[in-house]
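Curious: explain these C-alpha cells?
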Amino acid sequence: MANITVIGFGEAGTIFASELVKYHQVTVWDSKLIGDAGEAMRNKARICGVHAAGSLAEALENAEWIFSLVTAGNSLNLVLDCQPLLHKGQSFLDCNSVAPGTKRQAAEGCLGRANYVDVAVMAPVPPKRAATPLLIGGETALQTVQFLQQSGLNASFGSNQVGDVSAIKMCRSVMIKGLEALTTECLLAARHYGVEDEVLASLHASFPSLGWDGDFPHYMISRVAEHGVRRAEEIREVVKMIEDAGLPASMCIGTIATQQRLPERMTQRGVVWETLQPFDWKQTADDLFLRR
C-alpha cells in the first residue's frame, strides 16, 4: 500500500482518487478546499474515503506518487508551486492535457527532485473510470506502468521521452474537441433554420456508425456545455503545440471560440449545468440562443 496524493479534486481527480483508494492510502488537495466550496469538497472526500489535506505542503509531505489533475491553464504553475516541496523518491504524474513543450518545461521543474512522468489520458474519464486508457511516458515510464496496473488502472507504455504521449493526446484533441465544436456550430444553425432533422438524417446516411440519429448529437453538445471552458484551455495548448511545429492552427483557433461560446452564454443567462439535466441539445439551443 502506497501513499498517493491527487491534486485537483474535480471530475477526473475524484474518480481516480475513488479508484486508487481501493489499493492505497489517498490524500487529495484542491485550492477550492480553502474557499467557499471547502466544506462541500471535504464532505466529498469523506464519502470517497480519502483524506482532504489542509495545504499543498501537507498533501505532498508523505506522498510517494503524486497525480496532477488540474486544468491545462494551471498545469505548469502547479509544478512551480510543488517544486520546493518535492523530494527524491517521489513520482510526479502529470495527467494534464497540455502541449509537449509544456510537459518538458514541467519536467525541468522536477529535475533533481521527483521523477516526472508524462501521462496522457486518452478518453473521457467518467464512463470508464479505472478502465480509462492511460499512455505513460518518461524515464520511469515502465516502472510507472507496472505500479498503475497493479493499482487497477489501465496504463500502457508509450515512450521513454517526455512529450511523446502528450503529442499523441493533443493531436487527437484536434479531432475530438473539434468535432464537438463543429457539431455545436452545425446544429445551432440548423435549428435556427428549422432543418435539423434533415441535416441529422444526411449526417447519419454518411456516417451511420456514429449515431447521428440517436444520442450522439446530445452527447457532443453536452460536453461543450459542461466542459467548454476547460476544453478551450486545452485547445490553447494544442495551438501552442502546432505552432511550435511551424504549422498553422486555424481550425483549433476556431474550436476555442466555439467551445467557449456555449458556457459563456450559460453564464450570461444564469444557467448552470445541473439545470440542463437530462440534456437535450434542441431545448438548450432554444433557451440560450434562439429565444429572444
